[in-house]
Specification:
Strand order of the largest sheet: 3-4-7-8-9-10-12-13
Largest sheet: 8 strands, parallel, barrel
Number of helices: 12
Strand content: 5-15%
Number of strands: 13
Helix content: 25-40%
CATH architecture: Alpha-Beta Barrel
CATH class: Alpha Beta
Structural class: alpha/beta
Number of domains: 1
Distance between the termini: 38 Å
CATH superfamily: Aldolase class I
Length: 376
């Protein structure tokens, strides 16, 4: 199946505009055309527990691929252990002007300036409430473009209220380069204010519902029956200094954040093989060129947190070896987007099988033993 994708399907898809090809791919998955690539390769790993959730595979789909939660169950069937939906904003928004998604095949990369185009928190929450949930489902939330940073906390809270009941975990996106001034929320004072507000709301909402809130459900749990607060994760940029990373780790630890996602796309363009990359303009670069920097950030988080902060490693995963490098650097889970676009529907199965073999070949009996092994 991988050869069919590489030799026939991908060349056809890559002749289309990148965003149109992506839309067609989602439509094909929604129609069940990915069933030929269904895989149980995630059974290779046994049970993986992270922030009180159980994952069948350490490999997930990064936010941005399924922005509106249209094909969560279909992605799980391909072998992904979790899907991060979004980025979701409180109000629906169209995103930036097209064209806004570009391929760089020579670099195995993408440039996007999509701008949080999504159908809005209310509609997406209703859709996720109907999902079979065959994998862990995270929801990545962000700020509406027309909302100032001064009003950002309230905007995040309103989105959080909508999706809290249908998300297994919530990722707080403060690092996209495609929403004006969003990355300023990574600054210590702004981040503290945002995380304090979200954790306070998290405690309130989690005490009201004993399980995922389904569409049109008004049922409250018996008195005293509560669930643990929803795992909150923070997604950070690769374009941070060591001191900024250290400060973010400290803040996340103080506010009992469940994990850090490292990293989002980069605004850097150095070292690209694509000679005309500048013609695509602004936006975030993802894929192979991001791999090394992503690993450096993962390693820094692991070091500053003394291995206590769970990390989801993302950026430049195309092979099982790429995934293992992130785990060895300190990641306890990994995500892919660009590698999946280039690798096709068999991507997850290929990564799962290859990664489980690498873990065994290096003498580890479980993936947990491999986390941070590069520094030992």
């Amino acid at each position: 199946m991988s050869k069919l994708w590489q030799s026939l399907i991908r060349p056809v898809m890559f002749r289309l505009d990148a965003e149109r090809a992506h839309e067609l791919g989602l439509e094909a998955l929604g129609l069940g055309l990915g069933s030929a690539f269904s895989s149980d390769s995630n059974a290779e790993f046994g049970e993986i527990e992270r922030f009180d959730l159980k994952f069948t595979s350490p490999l997930g789909v990064a936010a941005g691929f399924d922005k509106n939660g249209l094909v969560v169950d279909q992605l799980a069937a391909l072998g992904f252990g979790f899907v991060e939906v979004g980025t979701v904003t409180f109000e629906p928004q169209p995103g930036n002007e097209k064209p806004r998604l570009f391929r760089l095949p020579e670099d195995k990369a993408l440039i996007n300036r999509l701008g949080f185009n999504n159908q809005g928190a209310e509609r997406i929450a209703k859709r996720l409430g109907k999902s079979k949930r065959n994998c862990v489902v995270g929801v990545n939330i962000g700020k509406n473009k027309d909302v100032s940073n001064e009003a950002a906390v309230e905007n995040y809270l309103r989105c959080f209220d909508q999706i809290h009941g249908v998300a297994d975990y919530v990722a707080i996106n403060i690092s996209s380069p495609n929403t004006p001034n969003l990355r300023e929320l990574q600054q210590a004072e702004n981040l503290e204010e945002l995380l304090r507000a979200l954790q306070e709301r998290n405690t309130v909402l989690s005490s009201r519902f004993s399980g995922p809130k389904r569409e049109n459900s008004t049922e409250l749990p018996p008195e005293g029956d509560t669930q643990s607060v929803k795992p909150l994760l923070v997604k950070i940029a690769p374009d941070l200094s060591e001191s900024e990373i250290e400060a973010i780790v400290d803040i996340c630890s103080r506010f009992n954040i469940s994990g850090i996602i490292a990293t989002n796309t980069t605004v850097e363009r150095e070292g690209l093989k694509t000679s005309n990359a500048k013609q695509f303009g602004s936006g975030g670069l993802s894929g192979k060129p991001l791999a090394k920097r992503s690993n450096q950030v993962i390693s820094a988080i692991y070091r500053y947190s003394k291995g206590k902060m769970p990390i989801i490693g993302v950026g430049g995963i195309f092979t099982a070896e790429d995934a293992f490098e992130k785990i060895a650097a300190g990641a306890s889970l990994v995500q892919a987007y660009t590698g999946f676009v280039y690798g096709g529907p068999a991507f997850a199965a290929d990564i799962n099988l290859g990664l489980s073999k690498l873990i065994r070949d290096r003498g580890f009996s479980h993936i947990d033993e491999a986390i941070g092994s590069a520094d030992r």
